[in-house]
Automatic annotation (TrEMBL):
Keyword Lipoprotein set for record: no
GO MF annotation list: glycerate kinase activity
Statement: the UniProt record of this protein carries the keyword RNA-binding: no
Taxonomic lineage: Bacteria, Pseudomonadati, Pseudomonadota, Gammaproteobacteria, Vibrionales
Family: Belongs to the glycerate kinase type-1 family.
Keywords, sorted A to Z: Kinase, Transferase
InterPro entries attached to this UniProt entry: Glyc_kinase_flavodox-like_fold, Glycerate_kinase, Glycerate_kinase_RE-like, Glycerate_kinase_sf
Documented EC number(s): 2.7.1.31
Signal peptide (residue range): none
Name of the protein: Glycerate kinase
């Protein structure tokens, strides 16, 4: 019996790799001789680097880079293992994420994506031929200016003076010089992972949708939205690239627009990128059962999240899919329309969040055992 264990991480309690191990521990109490295949997953957001590194036996590369407020921060990216050793995986939040900015200092006029560019440059200079970049969790609204500045692009004001790549700098651009753009970037395959389809500007754009959580006032929102619109017009006039209305251009404060406007990057849903990178079909062939999961399964899980992503892949092989969760939320049954056959929650009794995190591994193993026993009953009855 071949069982695929392919969950996302359980935020703040277990990595995807740890979830895999806990599930196997429980299943083995019932099926000792089964062939267990661990595929730790992520959907392009937090945990994507770790899951792909774990799944390919790659390595984490630690880097000190420029944080959103211009101070040095500790960041990282992943270099995948085996045949994928020339692939680097970067979460832009590692360098330019909101967690690097204290609540009282959040101001999208001041923050920069420069550190993300430094991570990219480091990966390129250490042999990366392909970049997978997750765009979630940004503290920035600079249209990717900071990232591009770190990669050699110069932004100039109306006096042809260089401008710093941050939100306020975005309001001052009159021309862009790409002569110094990193020489290895053009030959690098770039895939950007985002479940955000927002355009760059307007009522559903980067600033209007996400600016408030980054500290934007009403006046800031108007200022930065107009600046992003002018930025898109400048990209169109100088480089004949239309980015203003592209789905995903507004991801990560306009970082999506920078990739789409200045590189040959393609944008895809994060879970699709992860599954393609791991050649998921080759693992699913010959399997008998797929176990997936995430910390909370609810109606949102049906929209680009890991359990549904792996379920859709599994259904091409007509495989049963069971999802295990820390807990379930409103309308979790929506996932039944997307390839998941059953959902189970791990919490065995009422307790506080701290206890839930502390007991997550034990509870997940116990849940997996109970699921295996239930499935085994069905198998016995089917076989007479």
């Amino acid at each position: 019996m071949k069982i695929i264990i392919a969950p996302d991480s359980f935020k703040e309690s277990l990595t995807a790799k740890q979830v895999c191990q806990a599930i196997e521990t429980g299943l083995k109490r019932v099926w000792q001789e089964a062939d267990y295949v661990h595929i730790p997953l992520a959907d392009g957001g937090e945990g994507t680097v770790q899951s792909l590194v774990d799944a390919t036996q790659g390595e984490i590369i630690d880097c000190a880079v420029t944080g959103p407020l211009g101070h040095q921060v500790d960041a990282f990216y992943g270099r995948l293992g085996g045949e994928l050793s020339h692939t680097a995986v970067i979460e832009m939040a590692a360098a330019s994420g909101l967690h690097h900015v204290p609540s009282a200092q959040r101001d999208p006029k001041a923050t920069t994506s420069f550190g993300t560019g430094e991570l990219i440059a480091h990966a390129l200079e250490n042999g990366a031929k392909k970049l997978i970049i997750g765009l979630g969790g940004s503290a920035t609204n600079d249209g990717g200016m900071g990232m591009l500045e770190a990669l050699g692009v110069t932004f100039l004001d109306d006096n042809s003076h260089p401008i710093s790549g941050n939100g306020i700098g975005l309001t001052q651009i009159k021309s862009i010089n790409v002569d110094g753009l990193h020489s290895q970037l053009a030959a690098c395959e770039i895939v950007i992972a985002s479940d955000v389809n927002n355009p760059l500007c307007g009522e559903h754009g980067a600033t209007a949708t996400f600016g408030k959580q980054k500290g934007a006032t009403t006046e800031d929102t108007q200022l930065l939205d107009q600046a992003l619109s002018d930025y898109a017009d400048l990209i169109a006039s100088q480089f004949d690239r239309q980015v203003k209305d592209l789905p995903g251009a507004g991801a990560a404060g306009g970082l999506g627009a920078a990739f789409l406007g200045f590189t040959s990057a393609t944008l895809k849903p994060g879970i699709d990128i992860v599954l393609e990178t791991l050649s998921i079909d080759s693992h699913l062939q010959g399997a008998d059962l797929v176990i997936t999961g995430e910390g909370r399964i609810d109606w949102q899980s049906a929209h680009g999240k890991t359990p549904v992503g792996i379920a859709k892949a599994a259904k091409k092989f007509d495989l049963p899919v069971i999802a295990l969760a820390g807990c379930v939320g409103d309308n979790y049954q929506a996932v039944y329309e997307h390839g998941i056959d059953a959902v189970f929650a791990a919490i065995p009794r009422p307790f506080d969040l701290e206890t839930a995190f502390a007991e997550a591994e034990v509870n997940m193993a116990n849940l997996a055992e109970n699921v295996a026993r239930t499935v085994k009953i069905g198998m016995i009855r089917k076989n007479g």
